[in-house]
Amino acid sequence: MHNGFVTANDEKMSKSIGNFFTIREVTKLYHPLALRHFLMGTHYRSPVNYSITQIEISSEAIFYIYQTLESCGGAISQFQEEIKTSRKKYSTTDDAQECIKNLRSHFEEKMCDDLHTPTILNAALQVALKLMNRILDMLKKRLQKPQKLSNIESLIGLEKEVRDVLDVLGLLSSSTYTAVLTQLKEKALKRAGLTEENILQRIEERALARKESDFELADQIRSDLTPKGIALLDFGNDTIWRPCVPVKPAKALDQQIL
User: Fold this and answer.
1) What's the confidence (pLDDT) of residue 253?
2) 9 and 47 in contact (C-beta within 8 Å)?
3) Nearest to 128 by CA among 95, 153, 151, 176
4) DSSP secondary structure code for residue 87 in this structure
């Protein structure tokens, strides 16, 4: 639907200067949902400036969305039976009710305003995702049953509303949340020129360095991966990895797409 001009790194796309590329070439390195998110980040009648940095940001945004949805689904599944067997029906929290209402009205308002998708992606949707993550953090604490189940009901309502928005925007995959996250990680590894075994080996080396109090080496291992779009996150003694926006996208990466 987009009908504005497309530039690459602020230059007119042209085969003669070698900055011409196809969607097929882009999706070899980036998830199609990341490309769609990137395109929706600009109004359909405005020029689109393609850059590695911007599509990396969109890729990270999609990962954040699906990571939140996966965590939400896991929490709901964990307490689903308790909700079903509870004699009392619990309602969503006031914050969640307000958030759901605002997301719905904001979405309808901006879609009616000449399909203003950039505002949808960056405003009420982000508020809803942040609230979902805040509730997920609360559920890790010891809560009284009424508060716990009310939070679960809130997650159910928020997940449904977020899914509805993503569905209309074409950002809701038919694959599971976990499958999308796996696909995003596979693309990130391909861009970085690494395998998961490489990452796990570096995590083991870093764990050993931390155990031996060699924090300089531990920090260096993390710093070496960040420019390649790989972030290491510590949770107690455990470390996981996830894609991130590279500090400086590799020049070779530009050459693969531009």
Assistant:
1) 47
2) no
3) 95
4) S
